[in-house]
Amino acid sequence: MRNNRLYICTLISVGILGGCGHNNNQSSTSQQPTAMTTPPTQSAPHQTVAANSDGQSDTVAQVTSAVDTLLSQQASATYPCIPKGTKLKHADVSKGIATLDFNSKFSAISNMGDTTESQAQQALQQALAPISDVNKMSVTVDGKPFQSQMTDWTTPFSVRKKSGDSSSSSVSN
After folding, report:
1. Residues with Cβ < 8 Å from 76, sequence gap 6 or more?
2. Do residues 123 and 106 lie in contact, with contact meaning Cβ atoms separated by under 8 Å?
3. List of residues 6+ apart from 54 with CB closer than 8 A
4. Which of 25, 64, 99, 132 has its CA 20 to 30 A from that of 5?
5. How would you classify the pairing of strands 48-49 and 88-94?
6. What does pTM read for this prediction?
7. Residue 28: how many CA atoms within 13 Å on its side-chain side?
8. Where are the alpha helices (DSSP H) in 22-109?
């Protein structure tokens, strides 16, 4: 079944990331990633699955599952690229663009260095890339635009690499 293949591809791509690695090349104004102070013991909160006007609730469920999987892996990673405690509050997909709304913990990414922020962006892109109905993504925090010094996360950006990508991704929207 197509959904199972997408889910398996998502798990494999997220598993490869394994915490995004440790990086010593962070900008001079950045802070090292904070160590885990308490192990994650709570289950994921109820996620909002919104069906847009196109009725893409299945795609939204795939997006939510892929991002939740990534966040749970990051929660146990030694050197996470996504801040610990980050939760996906809401996901929506419209015209091929996945909008991810995170809780305020995600904002800490702006203090983790530009390399770590880039790794977080790549991790989210890789998590969403296997979902064929998603071509781009944008990020908000508590429903408001999130911008950092490195990236404007609210302007939709591709979830797939354009140059050097052997598979062609066509956008028909």
Report:
1. 39, 40
2. no
3. 94, 95
4. 99
5. parallel
6. 0.66
7. 0
8. 57-75
